[in-house]
Amino acid sequence: MVAFGMGVTWLGYSICLYGYCLTRQYQVGFLQLVQPSDPGLSWPPPLTADQASAQQAQPTVAKQYLAPLVQLVSLVGAAVSTLGSLVGGAAGAAGQAAGALGGAVSSGTAGALGGLGQAAAGAGQAITGTGGGPAKGVGTVPKQPTVSTPPGWTVTTPTAPPASGGWTVTNHGNQGL
Amino acid sequence: MGVASSSQAPLVLAWTVAETVVIYRSAKQRIPPRPGQLLATSGAFVLLAVLSEFAPELALMVGVGIDIAALFAVWPGSSGPGTPPAAAAAASAAAVDLGAAAIAG
């Protein structure tokens, strides 16, 4: 009875291990497992040919689901940076319209919003790596300088920064200088 | 129905010890023990269990000897799965020399 139990225990363990190898698609046979000495058998055993090729062909689950997520975050980052730059440009235009009344304040707001666009673009870059690359150019709005205009002076600002990147200050009345 | 008679209980304990030694040496290397490693121990104790029906003391004595051999890693399969056969043979020869020196001394 005891001998029978010992044999059944060994056989049960052998079958369990062989079933485990089958489920993991290891390329090992039952006789190879139960051989007393097989120096050529390493653990884990090599995979079957079709399983190895399938693992090489298919990306891992992380890559499979992470790549679209990275692209989505990249798109969201680019959209946020574009929106931030647009809001910054609008606020800059509003600051121009305000003129002498709230020029400094609105310019500061425009600069802050432009900075927000830059920050959003930077966040998009930081999150998505290379995906946020184009968003940096869209969200780059130069901070508008604070200009106090004397009476008779008007300040004209382009809606988009010119290639030279400067502002045009025109003295129409030649007053004050 | 008893699983083992009182005369066979020490033999079952000796079998458990021998299997534990083999399994521990494999688990230490994070490798499941192959059934081939356990075959020698299991086969020997199956024969000892049959023998214990007629001569329980002799079977127990041999079983304890197998335990000692497994502890000294000279029993087949007890030297670990990653041990090359040459190293196992060298360990076995060293153990034999040690035993001979102890007997002579």
What percent of residues of chain B are in strands? under 5%
Radius of gyration of chain A: 35 Å
Alpha-beta content class of chain A = mainly alpha
Fraction in helix of chain B: 55-70%
Helix/strand-derived category of chain B reads mainly alpha
- What is the topology, as strand order, of the major beta sheet of chain A? 1-2
Q: Low-confidence spans of chain A: pLDDT under 50, at least 5 residues? A: 97-107, 126-139
Tally of helical segments of chain B? 4
Number of strands of chain A: 2
Which two chains have the most extensive interface, and how many residues on each?
A-B, 20 and 27 residues
Distance between the termini of chain A: 117 Å
Strand count, sense and barrel status of the largest sheet of chain A are:
2 strands, antiparallel
Task: Tell me the series of helices and strands of chain B, N- to C-terminal.
Answer: HHHH
> What's the count of strands of chain B?
0
The whole-number mean of residue pLDDT values of chain B reads 79
Radius of gyration of chain B: 15 Å
Quickly list its features.
heterodimer; A: 177 residues; mainly alpha; 2 domains; two-stranded antiparallel ribbon; 2 strands; rod-shaped; B: 105 residues; 4 helices; 69% helix; globular
How do the helices and strands line up, and which of them pair or pack?
The complex is a heterodimer of chains A (177) and B (105).
Chain A: H1 2-23, H2 30-34, H3 49-57, H4 61-98, H5 103-128, H6 133-139, E1 153-156, E2 168-171
Antiparallel strand pairs in A: 1-2
Chain B: H1 9-27, H2 35-51, H3 56-71, H4 85-104
Helix pairs in contact in B: 1-2, 1-3, 2-3
Description of the structure:
The complex is a heterodimer of chains A (177) and B (105). Chain A is mainly α and 177 residues long. Chain A contains six helices and two strands; from the N terminus they run H-H-H-H-H-H-E-E. Chain A has two domains: 47 residues, no CATH class; 87 residues. In chain A, helix 4 runs antiparallel to helix 5, helix 4 packs parallel to helix 6 and helix 5 packs antiparallel against helix 6. Chain B has 105 residues and is mainly alpha-helical. Chain B has one domain. Chain B is globular and about 40 Å long. The interface between A and B is medium-sized, with 20 and 27 residues.
